[in-house]
Amino acid sequence: MTKRTAPSRSTALDSPYGLTAGVAEESGAGSADQLSTAPADDNGAPAFGVISWLRWFWRQLTSMRIALILLFLLALASVPGSLLPQRGTDPAKVDQYKSNNETFGPVAEALGLFNVYSSIWFSAIYLLLFISLIGCILPRSWQFIGQLRARPPAAPRRLQRLPAYATWRTDAEPEQVREAARVLLKQQHYRVHTHDEAVACEKGYLREAGNLVFHVALIVMLVAFATGQLWRSEGGKLVVEGDGFSNTRTQYDDFKSGTLFDPDSLPPFGFTLNEFEGTYERTGPQKGTPRTFEARVSYWEGADGAPRRTTITVNNPLEVSGSKVYLLGHGYAPIVTVRDGKGDIAFQGPVPFLPKDSNVTSAGVIKVPSYRDRNGKESDLGFQGLFVPTFAGTGSGSMFSQFPALDYPVMALTAYRGDLGLDSGLPQSVYQLNSKNMKQFTNPDGGKFRQMIRPGETLTLPDGAGSLTFDGIKEWATFQVSSKPGNGTVLVGAVAALLGLSASLFIQRRRIWVRATPDTDGSTVVELGGLGRNEWPRLPEELAGLATALRPQAPPRPMPPQDTNHPADADTAEGARA
């Protein structure tokens, strides 16, 4: 038995299987169009005419080169969305960034870098990539289906010219050898067809199937991403311990949604924050670092759903009614009781203060509309407050905290009287005090009134204007309720893309022919030839394995004396010399 591997030829690129053009034409083994579903790459200039230019443009757009360029541009265009604050996510940070970068800020605004994913240029890249992939996949899919329905081509006349080749003589009948080869190749999952004196087989179509799956998966991910952007909804809510939230539009502190989202389609659910617990590192170089944030809630689903208890942590959101409830942050809400000049309660309850640093030094506002002084005159009352969970003294005219836990809480308040502007009809933040139409209280000596108090203490306003009692402290947590359809589809598409890419990289398409012909001396000449795409290095090994498996049904006989006039022997001798 003789096996050989043909040396590389300079014309091997003429065929994706490494077969020279002359052999391909001679054997009918198939051209490049038959062995690959990749569209022809047309780099030449189009002929004159609108139709010719449109055809040329379409071929360029649907080429693999342009698709890769668009994919790279899409990834590159996403970088500003990760590095710069986005107006759709945090408009306050965008305004702060522009104020801190007076030169680059206006340029970034003009280029749409603060609205990357809704900008015209990002959408253009996105749509072009989408069209390019569809235009590439459709013709390749039809061509691939045609290849699956086609039979393996007939064997070339000279198998010894193929990159992998083996031959021997046997006393078995040609029909017996061909049937044994057909059964053996079928068992090894080859597509088999018998042509005259040869058995043709083909394997590795999953390579092109994987390639198509990869491209289809990219389209699926693009569609899912677009669906998520168009129908998404996202809102934030600050909830104090003991308070609840219901998933209606008016309950959100801030709310953003996609273009096609219907606010009336919000699923009915809600939850109550029963308790929030945060722990911090007490010693060492990481002192003050958060260790655990846990929000213990009772949630219900549907209008008549029974309450169920669960714990939401930073990396463990609550999933309910197709939405996810994330825990974003926390802070403190001093509980105060404000009495007017006649001793009646004008306001009572917790007031959330917003953190300013990692030690939860917090600022807040207490607003008391329709307040009455000791003479019964109505006006508004406002307090500008600063809260520290662990008092560490004052610096630069303001107190600060040295630890985020409630070790020694102190609240400092500045009081104002006048018009809060709540009746103006203009929206107003509950965390800011507009003191334009208000007058600050002063001490008897004329100095500005400001006082620090601890839980259980009472602040008395000048001139018998009333009082404020610091009753205690509750904690609050901020939650983000997010609904983004298509996330599951994106995951499926990503997994399919990885599987398809793996198949296209590691599965090799190859063709093998087994020819059995009678010789003049009564023996049967068995020839095996293999052709692998991209000159697959393991093809000779696979062909040798097939030859070894076929030997029990076609045992080799001793080689007769070499006859240089016999074409088969001459080819065998030529292969042995090579």
Overall description:
The structure is a single chain. This protein is an alpha+beta fold and 578 residues long. It contains 13 helices and 25 strands. The chain has helices spanning 21-27, 32-35, 50-61, 64-77, 79-83, 91-100, 104-111, 120-149, 174-187, 206-231, 487-506, 539-550, 567-577, and strands at residues 2-5, 164-170, 191-195, 198-203, 233-240, 244-246, 254-257, 269-280, 290-301, 308-313, 318-320, 323-339, 345-350, 354-355, 362-372, 378-388, 391-395, 398-401, 410-418, 438-440, 450-453, 458-460, 467-483, 510-518, 524-532. The strands form five sheets. Strands 5, 7, 11, 12, 13, 22 and 23 form a seven-stranded antiparallel β-sheet that branches. A six-stranded antiparallel β-sheet has the order 1-2-25-24-4-3, sandwiched between helices. The longest helix has 30 residues, at 120-149. The chain is elongated and about 130 Å long. It starts with a strand and ends with a helix. The model is unreliable at 3-37 and 566-578 (pLDDT under 50).
Q: Tell me the structural class.
A: alpha+beta
User: How many distinct beta strands?
Assistant: 25
Mean of pLDDT: 83
Give me the Rg, rounded.
39 Å
Tally the helices: what do you get? Answer: 13
Which residues form runs of ≥5 with pLDDT under 50?
3-37, 566-578
Outline: elongated
Largest sheet: 7 strands, antiparallel
State the end-to-end CA separation. Answer: 15 Å
Give the percentage of residues in beta strands: 25-35%
Q: State the assembly state of the protein chains.
A: single chain
- Helix content bin: 25-40%
Region (Disordered): 549-578
Transmembrane segments: 66-84, 120-139, 212-231, 488-507
Organism: Streptomyces bacillaris
Protein name: Cytochrome c biogenesis protein ResB
